Amino acid sequence: MEKLRTPDARFAALPDFGYPPQYAEIDDLDGGTLRIAWVEDGPADSDPILMLHGEPSWSFLYRKMMPILAAAGHRVICPDLVGFGRSDKPASREDHSYARHVEWIRTLAFDVLELRNVTLVCQDWGGLIGLRLAAEQPDRFGRIVVANTGLPTGDVPMPEVWWRFREAIQGAPELNVGWFVQSGCRTPLSDEVRAAYDAPFPDDAHCAGPRAMPSLIPTAPDDPAAPANRAAWAALCASPTPMLVAFSDGDPITGAMAPIFIREMRGARGREHPVIGGAGHFLQEDAGEEFARQIVAFLRSV
């Protein structure tokens, strides 16, 4: 597996994101290793909050939330998915698979960091990966927060807006990640913030991850990832692990999933679930502070 690494200089001027990166070498599942990155905040001896980003962002997405959660006494851990952020970037789209992404994050969270009693916070692909882990290793998780995400099995059609996104991100001659993030926000991003989202991708050779991810989502019942996702959905529906459903009020891609989580998940029943107002798909950008406050209140309640 050929891997690329974004030069450190690309991350030299990130607004409001001064956390020093940490790194680990993990198995690339192809006979070699790759470097995966994460940032942390908060007391190291506190129960961890594992915050997983999605497509095509990176841990920078959580910069507004990390200080609030850390100030409330929580250890906050924000990895960069392989192919994103400061993590190594497999150069071929074929190097990326749903199963590999689940295993790469599992290795970091449980083999490297040895996390237990985890609060999972997941959005977009962070949910597709994190919810699989929560279902497959439930003893590691104490709470789950789902936000603008899902766990597709291919049994229900994806919305038309998602198909347009998939076509755009796979077919663009040059991938402008900052523009894609802006298109998923209701509030305008500054030039500095858009540049921060572009930073991990100095050229198109580094973009195999963002270009590959849409094709890894199960869109038909016979997709290779569909059986594992069905099993995970069934396990989560039966799980007593407390769940907070905190979707935004303006996400055309995943918005329809919020009432399904609330209705189907045992851990979500009997709880007030917030709707994060004035926010689009990337609610961490549009309303990160409010989202973080809702998580703090949830953790206090359970």
From TrEMBL:
Record has Hydrolase as a keyword: yes
Protein keywords: Hydrolase
KW Hydrolase (keyword) present: yes
Residue ranges of every copy of the AB hydrolase-1 domain listed in the record: 48-167
NCBIfam families per record: PRK00870.1
Protein name: Haloalkane dehalogenase
Species: Mycolicibacter acidiphilus
